[in-house]
Amino acid sequence: MLTDSHCHLASHRFDPSEIPVLLDRARHAGISRIVSLATDLGDIDANLAIADTHPEVSVCVGIHPCHVHEAPDNAVDQIRPHLSDPRICGIGETGLDYFHPAPEGWDEAIFRQRQRDFLEAHFQLAAHSGLNVVIHTRDQNGDASFHDALAIYRRHASHTRAVFHCFIGSSENARKVIELGGLVSFGGVTTFKNAREVLNTATTLPAGTFMLETDAPYLAPVPHRGQRNEPAHVHIVVDHLAAARGEDPAELAAITSSTAANFFRFTPQHGTIA
């Protein structure tokens, strides 16, 4: 049993006709559960359609920080009607992205404030729905986006959990998330030779405090680095991380899958691959 806790099956980099083949490869690689995330209002229906015909797929809905300039002011409110759908398992992908510059015509400070406002609104929506939140952070230098997102999470941590996905920070920062009741998630970056700090963080955290992911179609692990990623490749992540931690891959897969099931509260309507 292995869970890919974060991917984007409705990405334009996946032709809809490919999805059954991609999911079949995932099944043969031992992946029994997949979480696919919407990044704007436009791809919610496409994600739900995939989940409708593939019960191993559950969906998170949110507005990615890189899309907040295109989203209407009430975009988060427009997500609300979807939240009673049993295919929905979380709120996101939301967060803060200080890596990409502000879009043309936008002031940088105003664009970042809009991201923070949207993140706050996602947390409020999560509190209303009882779902948890998936957070993206990224910086050109330093970790300002992480600390700003953590500050917002801290205000909501008493009633909502969050996972900081594709975590590439220090173990100190990871523990700040965990102390609030949250999680971090690791993907293909842990296999990169130039990402030793990420692997060190992933090897020092206690079991049950992190999940595994692909972020497909992005960030494929070695030996597929630079290629299009897919859910089947999460088995490479678990094998690599288990070796670094001195653990059995099957045990690590089971623990991280249990952690994901607890966080996303998967419903009986959507089960694992048979």
Task: Give an account of the 3D structure.
With 274 residues, the protein is α/β, with parallel strands linked by helices. The protein has a single domain (2-215, 236-264), classed as Metal-dependent hydrolases (TIM Barrel). 39% of the residues lie in helices and 17% in strands. It is built from nine helices and eight strands. It has helices spanning 19-28, 44-53, 75-79, 108-129, 144-156, 171-179, 196-204, 234-245, 249-264; strands at residues 2-7, 31-37, 57-61, 88-98, 133-139, 162-164, 183-186, 210-212. It has an eight-stranded parallel sheet with strand order 1-2-3-4-5-6-7-8. Helix 1 links the parallel strand 1 (2-7) and strand 2 (31-37). Helix 4 (108-129) runs parallel beside helix 5, helix 7 (196-204) crosses helix 8 (234-245) and helix 8 crosses helix 9 (249-264). The longest helix has 22 residues, at 108-129. 47% of the residues are buried. The mean pLDDT is 96.
